[in-house]
Structure formats: structure tokens, C-alpha cells
Amino acid sequence: MKKILLLAAAACLFGTGAVAQETKATTKNDTVKFTVIKENPITSIKDQNQSGTCWAFSSLAFFESELLRMGKGTHDLCESFVVYHTMIDRARASVRLHGDISFSQGGSFYDVVYCMKNYGMVPQEAMAAPGSLYGDTLFNHNELDAVAGAYVRAIAKGNFSKLSPCWINGLYGIYDSYVGELPKEFKKDGKTYTPKSYMESLGLNPDDYVSLTSFTHHPFYTRFIIEVPDNWMWETVYNVPLEEMMAVVDNAMANNYSIEWSTDVSEKGFDRIKAIGIIPETDIDGMEGTEAEKWGKLSAAEKEAALYKFDKPVKEKKITQ
Hints:
alpha+beta, 12 strands
């Protein structure tokens, strides 16, 4: 079977459809600008707003790009459908293991693959509009996370000699209230679909995709379960040397495939507003005398502010294995 290579590295996800390089800034503020080298088709950017479900947004964006590549047209696949199904099954797993599996908003690319294989897919319009059920205009899962999390913890950590079959119905009620009821049937372009028949109509085969990573605590060219709490299904990834992983990125992009990139965006160096990530060179190596002298006089806070200002291109570290 032909495999389409996909990257997965950690817990929180974001997707991209183009490779770019820095070029000389042209604005008064010397803002970083990019020159497009290769751009593959993508759908419109969706706003996850106040929800920790970047994995759902980026993974579905990846599959929407795949549909464009395959000549299937523009689709807007439903994040709420994926979140509902995977969180219900995640709650079952958490209860079964007495709360020792993470029940939180974070997830992985495989959550979407799992949903597609087991429950199908629906377009955005098949479920309630984001935020509409609680008077918002976009996703806001803060209250949902607090309510559902407390509910699942009460069941998972409760000192019950036997659980009734009713607890799951209460969780369905929570998700029905916040993200909308799951559709059994819906109409799209004049045709009636179920979630599974709609998934079949898309022509996507979730088994055509493989996750790659590059870690040194497991042997290269082997599969391992990536050890992060959001990998609640214990999905395996294939481990390769860093240079080979990046070669896959270049090759995929060159051949019109998009990339699903999974990473931790909580570290310094990632700016959500400007949508740019850098790892600046913090050493004074390569600095001229005056520049190095000025840098050496800065406090730690001043150095950090200068490094992560994001107002112009900076020297970045060369990342090795």
C-alpha cells in the first residue's frame, strides 16, 4: 500500500501548507516577511478560539488539503464531531483505568484517524455552529472542560463497588449541551448521508498515513508508543533520524502533499499572534566586538526580551539530533 508520510512529534498540533524562507523586511517596523518557495492548496484558516483542540483543527485541515490534492473539492470537516466522539471514548478509558489516563482537551493526530475509522465524519454544517449553544460566536471549551472533567473524575476516582450503566448517559448530556447532538443522518448537496457513508464518499483511507518522529530514547527504525499524556490511545509512531524526518518533509512538499506537524507550542519562541516560531541563537559566537559587548551588559530579562521580540530576522540555532 502506498503510504503518505505524516509527521507527529508531541502533544499539541498545528498544520502548515507551505515552506517559506525569511527575506529582507520592507515595513517601517522591520517586521519579518516571507517569500513563498512552495505552496500547496489549503482550505480557509479556522479559529479554535478558547479550546485546547488544536489537534482536531490541524488534523482536519490536513485532510481538507488532501481532498483538494485529490481533486475532491473544498470541504469543511467538523471539529465538534471528532471532539465529541473521542472525548466520550477517552472518558470510558479513564474510568476503566480509575482516572490514570489523561482526560483533557489535548489530543493527537491519531484521535482524528480513530474517529474516521470508527465513527465516520460529517461536514461542519451537520452540527451546531461553534459556540451557538452557549451564546458565543466561536469555540469556548473552558466551561465544558471544567464540567466534563469534574464529572469524569467523580466517576473514575469514586469509591464505588460497582458502576451503573447510567454514568455515560450523563456525559452524553454534557456534550449534547455544549457542542450539539451527533447527527445520525444529514443532507449534503442534495444527498442524504450517515457519518460513515459521508466518510466513504470522501475517498480518504486513514490507513494511508503514517506518523514519523525523531527521538533518541528509542532505537531508530522502530515503532514506539510516544509517552505523552495526550496519547491516551497509546498509538505508535515510527522513529527515524532527524535528517531523514526533515527529508520526508521536503519530499512531501515537493510532491504536492501537505504536512501535519505535531509539536509543543508552549515553549518560548512561538508567537501565536504573528504565527511564527524561532529558536534564536543565544550565544555571542559570531558577534562583532561592539555587538558582543552590548549583549554582555544586558540583564537576563533584557536578553530574553530582545531574543523573542519577533520584529526582525535573527540568527537561529542549527538544530541537530
